[in-house]
Amino acid sequence: MQHVHEIFDTVRSVMKGMRITFKYLGKRPVTQQYPQERWALPDRYRGFVHNDVPRCTACLLCAKVCPVDCIYIVTEGKGKDRLMTRFAIDYNKCIWCSLCTEPCPTNCITMSHDYDHALYFREKLVYEFVDEPVVPYREPKKGKAAEGEEA
Amino acid sequence: MDWLLAHFSTLPLLGGLPYSAQAGLAMGVYGAVVLVIVALAVMVFSLAERKVAGFMQSRYGPMYVGGWHGILQPLADGIKFLLKEDIAPAAADKLLWRAAPIAVFTGAFMGYAVIPWGPSFVGAKLDMGLFYAFATSSLVVMGIIMAGWGSNNKWSLYGAMRGAAQVISYEIPLGLAVLPVIMGAGTLNMGSIVQRQAGFLWNWNVFNPLFAISFVLYFVSAMAEVNRIPFDLPESESELVAGYHTEYTGMKFAFMMLGEYADMFLVATIATAVFLGGWWTGIPRVDHFVPAPVIFTVKAVALVFIMMWLRWTLPRLRVDQLMHLCWKIFIPIALGNLLLYGLIRSVI
Questions:
Q1: What are phi and psi of B115, to 5 degrees?
Q2: pLDDT per residue over B29-88, tens digit each?
Q3: For B264-298, what is each residue's pLDDT tens digit?
Q4: Mean pLDDT computed over every residue of chain B
Q5: Is the pLDDT score of A142 beyond 70?
Q6: Nearest chain A Cα distance for residue B90, angstroms
Q7: What is the pTM of this model?
Q8: What are the distances in angstroms from CA B77 to CA B46, B54, B73, B84, B229?
Q9: Are A21 and B313 a contacting pair at CB < 8 A?
Q10: Residue B345: pLDDT band with limits 50, 70, 90
């Protein structure tokens, strides 16, 4: 009798399992087709740190505040001849703390929404933002802005 | 095949040939057509399997090849199989190892000779058709043992031994399950068995209560026979890597897979012919409008879908559970069913 009972029990449980899988067959997949479809990221999402070079004043505040010293800034000359020759961020070291964005006077260093930077070599994770020496951005002085533009 | 032969005799060039040559030619043409159909069916199944698996697990399955929902994935798989390096184990028994994929596929393919796709679309109207189909489909196990022994690999050998034990055990309930139907039909000719199920839906064998039990027994035993999950012990990937085809690569592996899927389709077609009314739609008026092979194929494909459905529902059985199911449950039920049907037949 036990034997017969077990047979019926098995048949019932198989039916139950098949009902569940069939229910899922009709449902929409939850998969996201990743490279084409992406999550909508929150505004304050901390992706890779990005520096908008044309607005950078090379004030070194971000490099100083960085707790792991992963921002390298090199400048040459003084005063009007001052040039920024290197602005690099070493993402091997970066801890995505967002502290560098706080003191920036022009808000040029920001946390971007990029997160998929897979690379084959560790060295490639040092991102260079300046290819050729550039003149750092200077805040136009009040009242002289129009004149400056003419010059 | 008869209409093919009849057509040949009317052609100007072929009509002059002796009958044996015409018959040989007709056989060759029919074989080629069925081979192409089976190969195409296997391609469709290999994609369908992955799609069904995907949707049952709330994902998509292959999505990229072919532009629209991975429609050309089987083709890409085929090209990949062709391009793979053909590696042979150094200590393999070369002859057995090479012959095994051929044996697996041939065993599966031979059964298609007697499958009645339609009233006149039959390879051979054998009077021993069903017996022949069972006999040839059990040749697959020879291929499995050859592969397992020839690979000279412990996993392969384990898989082959399990396969042999499983397939030979499940042959018995498989045969016993269809015996009542054969008793009822009074013939082993598959075309005649289908012809007896003409008319309305309730004339199908599966709607006879005793034959319904036979159908379930047959279907589950057939799944064990073709090594499908939940009975895929010969190739259980979590224990035996890939079982008897662990050492196979490239086209040899493709042939193993082809044989497996062809075998799966074969048992589905046999079930269709024996239990599900073959090419009959179940409504006599509709039978004239729909081509017989189409109805037959639809039913067989539906059974294959149920096999896939079960695959993605149930976990694999243990070896002892497998043997328990066969010897202590299926065989007694099949024998009891046979006895009961015999008694009913002799009384009525």
A1: -75, 120
A2: 888 888 888 888 888 888 988 888 888 888 888 888 877 888 888 888 889 888 988 888
A3: 899 999 999 888 888 888 777 777 788 888 888 88
A4: 85
A5: no
A6: 36
A7: 0.79
A8: 10, 17, 6, 11, 22
A9: yes
A10: confident
- Dihedral-angle region of residue A39 (phi above 0 means left; psi in -120 to 50 means alpha; beta otherwise): beta
Q: Does A27 touch chain B (CB under 8 A)?
A: yes
Residue range A67-83: mean pLDDT, rounded: 86
Which residue type occupies B99? A
- With contacts defined as CB-CB under 8 Å, which chain B residues touch A33? 60, 63
- Chosen from A2, A6, A10, A21 to mutate, greatest number of chain B CBs within 10 A: A21
Query: What is the number of CB-based contacts under 8 A between chain A and chain B?
Result: 41
Nearest to A31 among B59, B309, B313 (CB): B59
| Strand-pair category, A49-51 with A71-76 | unpaired
Determine the residue of chain B that is closest to A21 in CA distance. B56
Q: Which residues pair with A88 in a beta bridge?
A: A72, A128
Give me the helix-helix angle, A2-26 and B19-56, nearest 10°. Answer: 80
**pLDDT number for residue A148:** 47
Token reading at A91: 């993402």
Would you say A117 and A48 are in contact if contact means Cβ atoms under 8 Å apart? yes
Q: Please, where are the H alpha helices in B154-291?
A: 154-185, 190-195, 209-225, 237-240, 250-274
Residue pointed to by tokens 């017969």: A4
Does B309 sit within 8 Å of A17, measured CB to CB? no
Cβ separation A29–B309 shorter than 8 A: no
How wide is the angle at C-alpha A88 spanned by C-alphas A82 and A93, nearest 5°?
140
Q: Which segments within chain B are labelled E, that is strand?
A: none
Euclidean distance between CA atoms B342 and B344, whole angstroms? 5
A60, B231, B339 from B246: Cα distances, Å:
61, 18, 43
Tell me which residue has tokens 């679309």: B121
Any CB–CB contact under 8 A between B321 and chain A? Answer: no
CB contact under 8 A, A25 and B328: no
* CA distance readout (Å), B43 to A33, A68, B39, B140, B221: 25, 56, 6, 20, 24
Query: Could you read off the pLDDT of B110-150 as tens digits, one per residue?
Result: 888 888 888 877 877 788 888 888 888 878 888 888 888 88
B160-165: which pairs have CB atoms within 8 A and are 24 or more residues apart?
B160/B234, B160/B243, B160/B244, B162/B233, B162/B234, B162/B243, B162/B319, B163/B227, B163/B233, B163/B234, B163/B243, B163/B244, B165/B319, B165/B323
Half-sphere exposure of B131 (CA within 13 A, CB side): 8
| ipTM given for this complex | 0.70
pLDDT tier for residue A141 given thresholds of 50, 70 and 90 = low
What is the Cα–Cα distance from B142 to B134, expressed in whole angstroms? Answer: 14
